[in-house]
């Protein structure tokens, strides 16, 4: 058999094996074509659930309709958030890419009055990374309460309260100066979700 014919046979055998993997036919381990004696196994090892759609650590909620949307947060009462943050509520939305939907609340300004993000990460270190992104240790005051640790900060540009416990992180941004408002929203989130 010449070299070209042998190359053609090898190519045909490889193509046939490829087809067998897709379930169309079989292929023997010796390269025999199409005898159907050996088939590819379709079973696969169970996979771990994909947490938060594999979003990056610094993922922020996306609400396509912005503040004109009126989808209520499943774990925070709208009026409670308005009273706690001190602003009237004119819009709210959720981002369901997160295992626990992220909630965004608007008042009259274009930027949200409050954003709540609950992250379910694969490891405790990944949850710590979320907190470090939202409330970097170099620019925030430390928080350590009831097993939750992280940071808080407030200034004229807004406030953040970010904590983690195990592989779960809770991050709240507020457009108010006082981090107490973000803290209260985070604690209500933790309580309502039994985290």
Description:
The protein has 195 residues and is an alpha+beta fold. Helix content is 27%, strand content 24%. It has 4 helices and 7 strands. It has a 7-stranded antiparallel sheet, sandwiched between helices. A hairpin with a 2-residue loop joins strand 4 and strand 5 (148-155). The longest helix has 19 residues, at 3-21. Residues 1-45 have low confidence and may be disordered.
Secondary-structure-based class equals: alpha+beta
Summarize the amount of helix as a percent range.
Answer: 25-40%
Task: Note the gap between the termini.
Answer: 70 Å
Element order, helices and strands? Answer: HHEEEHEEEEH
Choose one word for the global shape: globular
Radius of gyration based on Cα positions: 26 Å
Structure summary, number of beta strands: 7
**What is the residue-mean pLDDT, rounded to a whole number?**
81
What spatial order of strands do you see in the largest sheet? 1-2-3-7-6-5-4
Total of DSSP H or I helical runs spanning 4+ residues: 4
**Which regions have little confidence, pLDDT < 50, spanning 5+ residues?**
1-45
| Major sheet | 7 strands, antiparallel
How much of the sequence lies in strands comes to: 15-25%
């Amino acid at each position: 058999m010449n070299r070209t014919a042998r190359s053609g046979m090898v190519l045909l055998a490889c193509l046939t094996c490829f087809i067998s993997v897709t379930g169309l036919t079989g292929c023997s381990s010796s390269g025999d074509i199409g005898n159907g004696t050996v088939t590819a196994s379709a079973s696969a090892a169970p996979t771990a659930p994909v947490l938060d759609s594999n979003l990056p650590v610094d993922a922020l909620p996306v609400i396509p309709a912005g503040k004109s949307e009126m989808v209520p947060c499943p774990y925070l009462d709208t009026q409670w958030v308005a009273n706690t943050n001190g602003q009237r509520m004119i819009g709210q939305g959720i981002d369901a890419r997160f295992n626990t939907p992220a909630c965004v609340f608007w008042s009259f300004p274009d930027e949200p009055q409050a954003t709540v993000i609950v992250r379910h990460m694969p490891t405790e270190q990944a949850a710590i990374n979320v907190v470090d992104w939202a409330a970097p240790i170099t620019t925030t005051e430390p928080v350590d309460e009831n097993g939750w640790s992280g940071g808080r900060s407030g200034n004229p540009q807004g406030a953040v309260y970010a904590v983690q416990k195990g592989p779960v992180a809770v991050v709240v941004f507020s457009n108010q100066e006082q981090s107490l408002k973000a803290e209260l929203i985070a604690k209500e989130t933790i309580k309502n979700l039994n985290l």
